[in-house]
Amino acid sequence: MAFSPRKLLLLCLLFLLSQAGMGQGFAPGGGLTFGTESNTMGFNARAYFFVNEKLCFGPELNWYLPHVNKTTAGTEYDGVWEINLNGHYLFRLGASDFYLYPLGGINYTSVWSRDKNKSLTNEPYFGLNAGGGLNYCWNNLIPYLEYDFLWGKRGNHTFVLGTFWMFGK
Fold first, then answer.
1. pTM to 2 decimals?
2. Which of 5, 53, 60, 138 is the residue whose CA sits 20 to 30 A from 120?
3. What is the rounded distance in angstroms from the CA atom of residue 14 to the CA atom of residue 102?
């Protein structure tokens, strides 16, 4: 059986959907992301499952805006997208509604390019994520700010600013 990112994403989603009834909440969300390796902005989509009040995990997708390189021979494009499976452990800051959390997980990154002849190349990378974040619980709306570093052949610092919407908690 050949490996494909679509199969990995499908397996992750099926696993997470099978766990949905066992936890205390489900929080889809997203936001804006910036990656230092690609040096570009992008979009983040995620869905987290809460095992209890403090522990959650889920898949994330980061898609970075492609670079356009215009040359005399034609236009070339290159870009990056990545799939992460991360976990968080939430620490409440005093009696406030702010939470600080470390994060850890696994990563699959695809670096692609399309040349002037429309030939597509793809370089896959695997790695580990480590970082942390801060969120604020405002009823069911949870804005967050997050940083993580990708450990692997393609190191990357990622910054995300976004929001969740909490269901079932």
1. 0.79
2. 60
3. 25
44 residue type, one letter: N
**Domains in the chain with CATH codes:** 28-165 (2.40.160.20)
Please state, in angstroms and rounded to a whole number, the distance separating the CA atoms of residues 111 and 70: 19
Q: Which amino acid is at 89?
A: Y
- Tell me, rounded to whole angstroms, the distance of Cα 163 from its chain centroid: 13
Which pLDDT tens digit goes with each residue over 75-124? Answer: 777 889 999 999 999 999 998 899 999 999 999 999 888 877 777 788 89
| 14: CB partners within 8 A, 6+ apart | none
How far is Cα 125 from Cα 109, in angstroms, rounded to an integer?
A: 5
Q: How many residues are listed for the chain in this entry? A: 169
What are the tokens at 151? 């450990």
- Residue at 101: amino acid letter: Y
Of 41, 24, 40, 15, whose CA–CA distance to 162 is shortest? Answer: 41
